[in-house]
Specification:
single chain, Ribosomal Protein S8, Chain: A, domain 1, 354 residues, 5-stranded mixed β-barrel, Ribosomal Protein S5, domain 2, alpha+beta, 8 helices, 17 strands, 3 domains, OB fold (Dihydrolipoamide Acetyltransferase, E2P), rod-shaped
Length: 354
């Protein structure tokens, strides 16, 4: 089981469904040695594609929604030996793997393969068929589901047709087999683990104004690339302003979150903040009030007396209390150190400590 970020989803977009994408991907590998054969390992064949699609269909109804579990999930079923229904085996094993990985599936899924032998008018339904029964029989009927319903069906037939009563009997006969297998599965692990692997990415999700997406991305992606290089996280931004940050280090994710929230936070005249001096020029000093958001304190706004040189009062790295004096037509933030009430300064320091 591999957990990825929303950007790892497989896009299925076309002209009719431009937003379609797949959050759960199931890959099924059936190497020749699993049935005692010697063949080159090439691209997936009909069996791999079909069985992978069946297992994916069986598990998709129990995969949690993106709101509950925002990860993209990839499961790979590796068949090591085959003498029966490996597709149903992959459904059961994948259920155990998902729960072991901490994926909160709504219900565990198990599956059983049903067979059939027909001689003239006599019909016998077989439960949990082996390879030889599959090869010599007249039907291969896969039934997968939870304890309360069926999530996937697949049937291969070698005869011209069957009455619906036989199909109904096969479905009902499969239920006790499925529940028996499910009981054995739940004896190993009965629910999703509360904690995920320490190697799984930690996702931090929040929203920004869609108008600010361009600001965060920057020209040619320069800004967002700078954030990812500085923090080592992966950032995905949806069109509605949903930002998802993925990192194995929670502190790095929080750092990236603070940078983006600082860039997109709207400052208002009169707001008081604790800032840090980032650079000094002859006419004033630049102060960062949020990560990625800074303004300038003009030399005349540094103190209530004449200041000859900015360096006489401030140095790079100094922590200062500043008030937003104005935001000009070009969006530049002008700050001041004057006319700040002690209560405002105390509140700003308290907010900075949070």
């Amino acid at each position: 089981v591999t957990l990825g970020t929303p950007g790892d989803a497989q896009e299925l977009a076309d002209d009719l469904h431009p937003q379609d994408e797949k959050r759960y991907l199931h890959h099924y590998n059936f190497p020749p040695f699993s049935v005692g054969e010697t063949k080159p390992l090439r691209s997936p064949g009909r069996r791999e594609i079909g069985h992978g699609a069946l297992a994916e269909r069986a598990l998709n109804p129990v995969i949690p929604t993106a709101e509950i579990f925002p990860y993209v999930i990839r499961v790979v079923s590796e068949v090591l030996s085959s003498n029966g229904s490996t597709s149903m085996g992959s459904v059961c094993a994948s259920t155990l793997g998902l729960m072991d990985a901490g994926v909160p599936i709504t219900k565990p899924v198990s599956g059983a393969a049903m067979g059939l032998i027909k001689e003239d008018d006599e019909v016998r339904i077989l439960t949990d068929i082996q390879g030889i029964e599959d090869f010599l029989g007249d039907m291969d009927f896969k039934v997968a589901g939870t304890d309360s319903g069926i999530t996937a069906l697949q049937m291969d037939m070698k005869i011209t047709g069957l009455p619906l009563t036989v199909i109904s009997d096969a479905i009902h006969q499969a239920k006790p087999a499925r529940l028996h297998i499910l009981e054995k599965m739940l004896g190993t692990i009965d629910q999703a683990r509360p904690d995920m692997s320490p190697f799984a990415p930690r996702l931090l999700t929040f929203k920004i104004s869609p108008d600010m997406i361009g600001l965060v991305i920057g020209p040619g992606g320069k800004t967002i690339k700078g954030i990812t290089e500085e923090t080592g996280v992966k950032i995905d931004i949806d069109d509605d302003g949903t930002v998802t940050i993925a990192a194995t280090d929670g502190e790095k994710a929080k750092q990236a979150c603070n940078i983006i929230q600082g860039m997109t936070k709207k400052l208002n005249a009169g707001d008081v903040y604790v800032g840090r001096v980032t650079r000094i020029i002859p006419i004033g000093a630049f102060v960062e009030v949020f990560p990625g958001k800074e303004g300038m304190v003009h030399i005349s706004q540094i103190a209530d007396y004449r200041v000859g040189k900015v360096e006489d009062e401030l140095a790079v790295g100094d922590e200062v209390i500043v008030k937003v004096r104005e935001i000009d037509a070009k969006g530049r933030v002008n700050l001041t150190r004057l006319n700040i009430h002690p209560d405002e300064a105390a509140a700003a320091r308290a907010n900075a400590m949070q």
